[in-house]
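=== Given protein ===
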Amino acid sequence: MAKRVSSIYGNALFELAAEENKMDALLSEVQTLQQILLENADLLSLLNHPEVSKIEKLDLLKNIFSGRASDEILGFLNIIVEKDRQKDIPKIFEYFVDKAKEYKGIGKVKVVSATELSARQKEKLTKRLLETTKYTSFEVDYQVDPSVLGGLIIRIEDRVLDSSLKTQIEKLSKGLSKLSVEKEGVVGLG
């Protein structure tokens, strides 16, 4: 249900940004608000508190964000509070940011390697990803995991390219085990 709520409200904000031709501005603003909510968990707790009335919540938002947030974002936050969906704000914003970045051609990629990649390796990898995908730029999350032994594991959306030595060794091992079992079966028949 929360996923559906986040997509409904996230899509509404996305459509507003597209219609008003304010995608960049609203994306930047929402990302700033995400950071504010992350750093001030008490604000979200207060917005979710059952003993704080809607009017008090709306006044709180107005006092905090008036003059700092656009009319579109203030109006959007008011609607969310009016509909008692304030607990979903982080997921709604996350959905909107992902959709806005997709619209702008910005991909998110996670790269796992056994050792830290050099700047040149990162540059070559990014260039190759741009050549082979629909994206115009990437936000790359590089992680080091010595257990992959070598090679890379690249995750873009729901696609995974795993060229790690660990996976190749596991596949080889399974193949050899299967071959060994088949060979024993053939010998056992004779």
Remarks:
- Residues 165-189 form the longest helix (25 residues).
- The chain has two domains: 2-102, 105-184.
- Helices lie at 2-19, 23-39, 41-48, 54-65, 71-82, 89-103, 119-132, 165-189.
